[in-house]
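Lecture 7 notes: from sequence to structure.
We start with the chain below.
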Amino acid sequence: MSIPDINSYLPVTSPTMSFFIVLCIILFAPIVMGKLRIPHIVGMVLAGVAVGPHGFNILADDRSMELFGHVGLYYIMFLAGLEMNMGDFRKNRIRTFTHGIMAFIIPMAIGFGLNVTLLEYGFATSVLLASMYASHTLIAYPTVLRYGLSHQRSVTIAVGATAITDTLTLLVLAVVGGLFKGNITGGFWFLLLAKISVVFFVIFFFFPRIARFFFRRHEDNVTQFIFVLAMTFLGAWMMEYIGMEGLLGAFLVGLVLNQYVPNVSPLMTHLEFVGNAIFIPYFLIGVGMMVNVNILLSGLGTLQVATVMIAVALASKWLASLATQKLFGMRAVEREMIYGLSNAQAGATLAAVLVGYNLLLPDGQRVLNDDVLNGTIILILVTCVFSSFTTENAAKRMVLETRATAPQEDTGDDEKIMIPVRDPATAENLVSMAVMMRNTKLNRGLVALNVVYDDANRLANQEQGRRLMERITKVAAYSDVRVQTQVRIATNITNGIKHAFKEFNASEIVLGMYPGGNRPHKYLGELAQSLYSGLSRQIILVRCLQPLNTLRRIEVAVPSKAEFEPGFYRWLERLARLASNLECRLQFHGRQQTMSLISEYLQNTHPGIRTQYTPMGHWNELPQLASSIDDDHLFVVVTARKGTVSYKAALEHLPDELAANFHGKNLMIVFPDQYGEAANMMTYAAPQQHEDRSAYAALREWIDRKMKRKDKQNA
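Predicted structure tokens for the same chain:
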């Protein structure tokens, strides 16, 4: 019996088996590389070398690998734009543009000189080859995400500089390609700039408006996920259509969708999961499959070219990183992080070498010959491996330094947010808001509560409550947040919430608002009134009429003397976290003394948040703010309980003013913390119950109704 030749079955042609082999690589490569203390990104590339046509020929480099490879590359660039903190980007824009320009000019200058003198290439070949050194791909960006360092300024600089260097490289590529195709005419430059300007305008002007329109009307996570992917590849195709590289379009789409996909949202979790599980590993394996280890033995020409290319690429990027560090007084570990992220060659480099390989000189020779093509493959392999190791090392050092220098978290922090829910339509928004307000460093879970009346419908209401709790658990799990749930039976809803609040030892409540209707004096709802009269802890009432990720501004009305309340910094910290996660502006209206303390606190704790302070001399000016509150703004009113320091008589009319002037607006009302359980203490000095309306106000309303009725009868 003869042994069958295994080579006759290779490469694998079955799509099912091919996909199985790729999944096995994605599954086991990180495990094996972890044992060897090698970055798993390198493992993906090396596995691609082994199974590719130049290795054991297990998988063919077919159209499916090309498709998933393109998707993975675009996904890396898209996530880079999506994860970028726009506040940090604006703050570091000078550093970013400076490094981007240097990371392009230094490799171009050194590369062109060595290409002409050492490799003895012509002018066009030297320019095109030098542009390849200038570009880089964020191959190690998943490492940054894994260590939670995407908001570090060094990462922001490297990511922003990638867009600059790749744009300039692709411009050089377009010019050189047009030169050899005879397209360089009088209108070439005008046409090229016009096409680029149009695409930039469409992406930055229309895409955000389309996203805002879509997210307002569709809250399903799967639908939003498909929409974001569609926008990403539409932007990539538009760039390809005008002759640029699609990865630039994917990056720009990530930037413009940044504010609509909060970092702690379920949508962001889905995007990162799918990218890191499938698309990005596919791209890395595809890069490895391009590597031909046999070319190392094909002659000195390839080795010489590859050596020069690797030396120039690594050295020039290091010089650019060093210059950025020295120029702006950055730390050594930040230079190492910038260098690690910016020395991998893949996307634009592949585009450049393939274009140059297909261009012919007048004598029939290729602009970039076989030696350059093979050298580029070696360059990609070496720089990807080097970038992975460098970034991994820098990330570890940065995490250790951050933990060593960061102030220790207050272990006495009692943060535990409770969310009483009854309406399924508002439950997801309440949970999402609580997730964005929580302290991620403490990593404490939420408490979701549903209280049902102890009546004849108790069993049916309990079952509805359990289904609602299951839905909330899923929503919180999307954001990787634990949640404790309870369906509670009570003869009084308010007392049920109060008792659960104490049993769970909660710190605050986030509650959906009563819609109001035509009864302004009941605008806050009887449940909310009973809660803030009976509890001394922070209570936040929320009415959000659209998805949180579409909010562009948070406007806060702060009463005078609010800084003397015990819960002043608690509600301020919650709003700061919410604004940070939504990447929107915080605008405060209040007295100058209060604004100064708010400004000082935010500058010390959340310097990246965009803030604005508008004087409001008297609380009677509150209705005038209605004209400045748009549909995509969240209006926050910080109020006070009766008998507290910041309470004033004008707050008695707050429900009427909100009902009359802020109907149809996104609204939040905050009742700050009070000391201990003082509000529940029974003394002769303190009233035992606080009514929402005084008897005088009720009498005045009764007289007004009588007078109006009499006027109508006389008319």
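Points to note: The chain has three domains: 10-403, 413-512, 514-526+541-674. The chain has a mean pLDDT of 80.
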